[in-house]
Specification:
The protein is α/β, with parallel strands linked by helices. Helix content is 39%, strand content 22%. Bound molecules: nicotinamide-adenine-dinucleotide.
Length: 482
């Protein structure tokens, strides 16, 4: 495959230093291609291009920008299969998942914001003989920094509203998964998007991401990634009074109440636990079950997990591929060992040496889905983000105890509640300290709704009007009526 390049001012270029990094297929250990190891000079070049394009792009009408978003959605739709294959190769996720989630949602992000923009109206308020007009302007040049778990899905979720509101962009995808961002840049070029509106700089976080956050003329940073990195981003950006949005880690609870219809929900619970090898920030990694049904639940859940098909991500029948890298595999395995040291019992799965996956290359970062029980809900294994295919089971005796257990982490991104009684689930959901609660469903997303976390899971919300608010500045113009 051709090397991945930066995309600056409408042209594909190498890092000015000429240095490169490798991107590796986690299912085989093979180097797929190289990407630029960029530095602050490349960020400077991309920012200059974005600033040069800024006033012209900001002056285009909303209707014109909406047409660009539709064109991008159409072009990504045409490339649906290519995108799914690139994403599967770069991340080790099953091809079926990459099609259904990553490729489809990337199209949907552009389509959604195009249609949302069509319905957008600015409010006016009349009082004291005057009319107040709420005027929106773009922030200017914005920086978008994204992680490796849903590479194009999360990048387009930021690019679409940023463009819609008239901003120009410097984007930095994860160094582990650069392929689909590179493809997006090629689509931008193919459809003739004015140069400088979208710029892409590849490389390492502390080198490229940090330079973006420090850049005085990048006035807004939208970041999705780990909590530790989010703290660095916040500490750097706050004294510069930059607008920042932080979508960070999670340790989400899946709460199974005593009336949950276990026969109907087991597949959903497996999906909520192990989609993308548990590497979705929304995955439930702690399952809290009413003690009255705990043993019944455990048997059914472990059996359903045992039916998952783990292996070659290119096979249509595979339901779980690899984790992102060998390094991450070792991190996840260290948590499985910690879980055992903390008193947990492995019900299914385990480290790759204890529970190897058959017929896969030894260089592949494969792990079996792992379920542990017997751990305190305050143990490290049950409170720290593992971000892999590991869940812990815990039992509770009443709803108050379940709420206390669910809220006993530093995180507060998402959670789900499973019950026959939707009203009961709704009431329970209001007691969880999280940004998102699903009742009898999971990853059911209406893109108009607020998405984001509380506590150490982040600051701010994305989605619908919340994204438009982040990517614009408001001026209230109060006009005295004659
Ligand atoms: P990460 O924090 O290591 O990296 C995220 C991005 O930040 C990458 O592009 C990285 O290169 C960059 N980066 C690293 N250091 C930086 C710095 N000093 N300044 C600026 N940028 C820097 O996260 P990851 O390992 O790529 O992704 C996994 C994490 O992302 C998990 O914690 C997961 O929960 C979280 N996540 C959250 C959401 C959400 O919506 N809340 C969604 C997906 C993933």
């Amino acid at each position: 495959m051709d090397p991945v390049l930066n995309y600056i001012d409408g042209a594909f270029v190498a890092a000015q230093s000429g240095e490169t990094l490798d991107t590796v297929n986690p299912a085989t250990g093979d180097v797929i291609t190289t990407l630029p190891r960029s530095g602050s000079v490349d960020v400077e070049a991309a920012t200059s291009a974005a600033l040069r394009a800024s006033s012209k792009w900001a002056a285009t009408s909303m209707a014109e920008r909406i047409q660009w978003l539709h064109r991008l959605a159409d072009a990504l739709d045409e490339d649906h299969e290519t995108i799914a294959r690139l994403e599967s190769m770069d991340t080790g996720k099953p091809i079926s998942l990459a099609r259904r989630v990553d490729a489809s949602r990337s199209v949907a992000n552009f389509r959604f914001f195009a249609e949302f923009g069509e319905q957008h109206e600015e409010p006016t308020f009349s009082d004291h003989g005057a009319v107040n007009h709420v005027h929106r302007s773009p922030i200017g040049c914005v920086g978008l920094i994204t992680p490796w778990n849903l590479p194009l899905y999360l990048l387009t979720w930021k690019v679409a509203p940023a463009m819609l509101m008239g901003n120009t962009i410097v984007a930095k995808p994860s160094e582990l998964t650069p392929l689909t961002a590179h493809h997006l840049a090629s689509v931008m070029q193919r459809i003739g998007l004015p140069k400088g509106v979208f710029n892409l700089v590849h490389g390492l976080g502390p080198e490229v991401g940090q330079a973006m956050v420090e850049h005085p003329q990048i006035r807004g940073i939208s970041f999705t990634g780990g909590t530790a990195t989010g703290k660095i981003v916040a500490a750097t950006a706050a004294p510069m009074f930059k607008k920042i949005s932080l979508e960070l880690g999670g340790k989400n609870a899946t709460v199974v109440l005593d009336d949950a219809p276990l026969d109907e929900i087991m597949d959903d619970l497996v999906r909520a636990s192990f989609t993308n090898s548990g590497q979705v920030c929304l995955c439930g990694s702690r399952i809290l079950v009413d003690s009255a049904i705990y043993e019944d639940f455990k048997g059914r859940f472990v059996e359903a997990v045992g039916r998952m098909v783990i292996g070659d991500p290119t096979e249509e029948s595979t339901t779980m591929g690899t984790v992102i890298s060998k390094d991450h595999q070792q991190k996840v395995e260290s948590y499985i060992r910690l879980g055992v040291e903390e008193g947990g019992k492995v019900l299914i799965g385990g480290t790759s040496s204890e529970a190897p996956v058959d017929n896969v290359p030894s260089e592949g970062a494969f792990l079996r889905p792992t379920v542990l029980e017997g751990l305190s809900h305050t143990s490290r294994t049950a409170t720290e983000e593992i971000f892999g295919p590991v869940v812990t089971l815990h039992s509770f005796d009443n709803e108050d105890e379940a709420v206390a257990m669910a809220n006993a982490t530093e995180y507060g991104l998402a959670g789900s509640v499973w019950t026959k009684d939707a009203k009961r689930g709704h009431a329970f959901g209001q007691r969880l300290d999280t940004g998102i609660v699903w009742v009898n469903t999971w990853l059911n997303r209406d893109l108009r709704t607020p998405f984001g976390g509380v506590k150490q899971s982040g600051v701010g919300r994305e989605g619908g009007a919340w994204s438009l608010n982040f990517f614009s500045e408001l001026t209230n113009i109060c006009v005295l009526q004659p």
